[in-house]
Amino acid sequence: MANMKTLKLTQPDDWHLHLRDGAALAAVAPATEAVFARALVMPNLKPPIRNVEQAMAYRERILEVAPKLDARMTLYLMDATTPEDVIEAANHPKMIAAKLYPAGATTNSDSGVTDIEAMDPVFAAMAEHGLPLCVHGEVTHQDVDVFDREARFLNEVLNPIVARHNGLKVVLEHITTTEGVQFVQSHETNVGGTITPQHMLLNRNALFQGGLRPHHYCLPVLKRERHRAAIVDAVCGGDHRFFLGTDSAPHAKGAKESDCGCAGVYSAPNAIAFYAEVFEAAGKLENLEAFASLNGARFYGLEPNEGTITLEQVETAVAAELPFGDTVIVPFRAGGTVAWRVAN
């Protein structure tokens, strides 16, 4: 242990997180609280978080089980969302974004937006009042191949939104493609992107190794190796427009392994260690802190955290299962190991 490699970081933030509610919330929130100072919590509950009052009630439930986690909240955009809803959110210090889910794009997105062009008054209010737009960037047309839906969304939907609304801050969430990387890099300001651990570590072969792998199924789905490599190059290369967003999305083991398994990867307990693996493999560990702790805060107009964490390069076991209310959850890389851990 005397030669163990360590890495001290400004305490990181998770800018894309699903915490669920009730017993599930109580089971997973402490894992994020143990490592991350702030988290941008997604609003796709059932029913979704449609206004500030609901968001603050949800935040109180989060703080009951993870009192040290500075939960930052998002507004769920719907066809019925108004500019007034946006203004109210923009004026609340703990509401720092609104989330666009095209209807039917992912988990609990049935209430999402059906006519994105009709949302222009809402986007205009967001640009005027400084409320960033977080985007699940996939079209949902059945004639579009699932592996092409991110690229098509950028061309057909997101580029026009950005062109129509000068000054609108946009985060392309959970980027999975070369096209997503290029979209972010084509904008000097106002556009950022979050990256998950699984999209940096896995390509789409991981869905089919030795059989169907439901715990690797997420949306957007894993892509070809060339896309994974492009993401790693951009992120590990130090581009300040990319920042940490795990998209950690817990589902019960039975729901993932059912005849119609749901999308989502639960990475929160070991997320920062997975990212460290990627940066270490790329020979760019010195760039991990900016990605994990600085870039996202800068994008959202916040100061970096004052605290720190220390990572140790020690092979660490990943649990095969974890408690999840009255059932269990299977975490990312369950039963395997990860090359780093957070020091106690």
How would you describe this protein?
- The protein is of the alpha/beta class and 344 residues long.
- It is built from 11 helices and 15 strands.
- Helix 5 links the parallel strand 6 and strand 7.
- The relative contact order is 0.15.
Explain the layout of strands and helices:
Blueprint: E1 6-10, E2 14-17, H1 22-33, E3 38-41, H2 52-65, E4 70-76, H3 83-90, E5 95-100, H4 120-129, E6 133-135, H5 149-164, E7 170-172, H6 178-185, E8 191-195, H7 197-201, H8 225-236, E9 242-244, H9 253-256, H10 271-281, H11 288-299, E10 308-312, E11 316-317, E12 322-324, E13 327-329, E14 337-338, E15 341-342
Parallel strand pairs: 2-3, 3-4, 4-5, 5-6, 6-7, 7-8, 8-9
Antiparallel strand pairs: 1-10, 10-15, 11-14, 12-13
Labels describing this entry:
single chain; 344 residues; alpha/beta; eight-stranded parallel sheet; three-stranded antiparallel sheet; 11 helices; 15 strands; globular
Shape: globular
Please give the number of β-strands: 15
Please write the string of helix (H) and strand (E) elements: EEHEHEHEHEHEHEHHEHHHEEEEEE
Q: Which residues form runs of ≥5 with pLDDT under 50?
A: none
What's the short story on this structure?
The chain is an alpha/beta fold and 344 residues long. Helices cover 33% and strands 17% of the residues. The chain contains 11 helices and 15 strands.
